[in-house]
Amino acid sequence: MYHAKSLGRNNYQFYTEKLNQYATRHVQLEAGLKKALQDNEFHLVYQPKFNVETQQIVGLEALLRWESQELGIISPVEFIPLAEETGMINQIGNWAINQACCQLALWHGQGFEHIAVAVNLSARQLKADIISTIEVALAVSGLPAHALELELTESMIMGNPQDSVAVLSQLKALGLTIAIDDFGTGYSSLSYLKRFPIDTLKIDQEFVRDITEDPDDAAITSAIITLAHSLELNVVAEGVETQEQLNFLRDGGCDQVQGFLLSKPLTAINCLALLNQEKNS
Predict the structure, then answer these.
(1) Are 107 and 46 contacting, i.e. CB atoms less than 8 angstroms apart?
(2) Which helix (H) or strand (E) holds 58?
(3) EAL domain: from which residue to which, for each copy (predicted)?
(4) In 3D, which of 180, 176, 210 has the Cα closest to residue 193?
């Protein structure tokens, strides 16, 4: 019944073994999520963001990972939508914000004050009391507000653009920076884009992947870079995996990149090692 409803209602679906397996998995994951925080099963990894010209690390994106004692490693693609659906994303997301702020504050104290950290926000978090959550995280960690960046997808903020402008303006007033993730994959409204108090546009890897082979992807990417710079916004390209892609983005004026070509997501220990290696080189 729920499967039929998820497909748009007013239809019927036959029982299959695959559907039963999906339902069982769904129940297992939901039960696992409820105790994952208390059992300390979540952790963050950090993917560096590099200046295109210097290839120096200028920031980190904190990414949530879940390793269940019972179910093993669970992909974010699987558990984050479930956390959204059940409402647990608020509690999990708040943990991630606090963890990322405390970790970066520690690295700042070790001499890496120029590094910022980006944390992804969900639609539910944006509707919750996100302002006080951020204020507490910054106060407890001692991290300066300008070192924290919040990433939101364009579909999320365009779901209710007027409310989004109000909330983002409050967040911006705290002194942090705001990025629009996966730009170009949702339903952008250029009239609202200029009203959002944002600092960065992130080009989705869907466009970057075939940037050197597909003229359409190349044209879209170049257009996003030009649009962003005309609005005095920073541009970050995701999913950079080849030197050819990096060359194209550099020639096109992209500001920052992240992807497996330069670094995969790293544990906190390995991330610090990379920062120290760069500092001493």
Answers:
(1) no
(2) strand 57-68
(3) 26-279
(4) 180
Burial class (CB in 10 A: 0-12, 13-18, 19+), 227: middle
Q: Which of 152, 248, 264, 251 is nearest to 208 (CA)?
A: 248
Q: What is the CA radius of gyration of the chain?
A: 20
Domain 42-280 is in which class? alpha beta
Contact 199, 233 (CB under 8 A): yes
pLDDT tens profile 214-240:
999 999 999 999 999 999 999 999 999
Question: Which residues are registered as beta bridge partners of 117?
Answer: 60, 148
Reference 203, options 148, 154, 251, 156; nearest CA is 154
Q: Is the C-alpha dihedral spanning 116, 117, 120, 121 positive or negative? A: negative
pLDDT on residue 112: 97
Residues 35-44 pLDDT 10s:
898 899 999 9
pLDDT, mean of residues 5-15: 62
Q: Which two tokens stand for residue 190?
A: 């250029």
